[in-house]
Design goal:
With 295 residues, this protein is an alpha/beta fold. It contains 7 helices and 10 strands.
Length: 295
């Protein structure tokens, strides 16, 4: 549940799977991520969830055991409460913001948004899988990951994987922090809210910087200006966390990632992984690691 939109996804796990569902990151045995429904903050949230789960075959076999749902919410507490109640009434065990399984090397980790943590968990686990495929024992240089999440807000977060650092000799997934800024839609809303004579406008990722009218100039500011923010934050966070952009494994996610794609591509010649369902994957991995799911 984000600040603007929410979505419901069904995640399938297959042990040892390297299947790549379209648009999904194949992490930790995730073989498929199916988006069942997406809705806005003004929609009837509990009804949309009930309708999505009522469709034929929607449980994907989950009805054979415990039916476990997990919620990541950065929106209002009231929306979260209604959703938990509806899922409970439908017979689902509900986990709200389960531990992401990260070592949080930041100040006041209790204030860090759950969506940032789940996206980083999925990215680090996927990076670990990729490196293990390339090097048999997973050894080598420290894995450095950057997650760019473009939506209502823009977050650019850094994380590392430390092999053998955990108490049991396993890997530690470490969240190093990052930056939070406005997304393109939020930029558009903010400037029209403060400008008494500025009419609301739609943002477009493909506008030129040179606007030939007031509306075009506003669109340029929101879109091109946003790309500039993405570029500088990617460079700055990478430099301060990793010493540069070279060798960084980059993941791009979020509903407004089309606005960020060009800037991310410019900043990282090694490329990036377009991962629209990164938060869903991380949430599913978190609940499975916590032993809360029978998936």
């Amino acid at each position: 549940m984000g600040n603007t939109n929410a979505s419901l996804a069904f995640v399938s796990f297959v042990e040892g799977s390297t299947a790549r569902a379209e648009g999904a990151v194949p992490v930790g045995g995730v073989s498929a991520i199916e988006i069942l429904a997406t809705w806005g903050r003004d929609d009837d949230e509990p009804l949309r969830v009930q309708e999505a789960l009522a469709g034929p075959g929607r449980l994907g076999g989950a009805g054979q055991g415990r039916r476990c749902a997990a919620i990541s919410a950065v929106g209002s507490h009231e929306r979260e409460r209604r959703l938990v109640e509806r899922l409970g009434s439908l017979g689902w065990d509900v986990a709200v913001r389960p531990e992401a399984g990260l070592v949080m090397e930041i100040h006041h980790p209790e204030t860090c948004g759950s969506d940032r943590q789940y996206a980083m968990r999925a990215a680090l686990e996927d990076g670990w899988r990729l490196r293990s495929e390339a090097v048999a024992d997973g050894a080598g240089e420290r894995l450095q990951v950057l997650v760019v999440d473009a939506g209502t807000a823009l977050t650019v977060d850094a994380g590392v994987l430390r092999s053998g650092a955990a108490a049991n000799g396993g890997a530690e997934f470490v969240f190093l922090g990052g930056a939070i800024a406005m997304g393109p839609g939020s930029l558009a809303e903010a400037i029209t809210a403060r400008g008494a004579r500025l009419a609301p406008f739609e943002v477009d990722p493909d506008v030129p910087a040179l606007g030939r009218s007031t509306v075009e100039a506003l669109r340029a500011g929101a879109s091109v200006g946003f790309r500039g923010a993405v570029r500088e934050l990617c460079r700055g966070v990478s430099m301060e966390a990793f010493g540069g952009t070279r060798g960084v494994l980059v993941y791009l996610t979020g509903g407004a990632r089309a606005f960020a794609r060009a800037a991310v591509d410019e900043t990282f010649p090694q490329g990036f992984r377009d991962s629209p369902h990164l938060v869903h994957a991380g949430l599913a991995l978190a609940i499975r690691s916590a032993g809360s799911s029978s998936l």
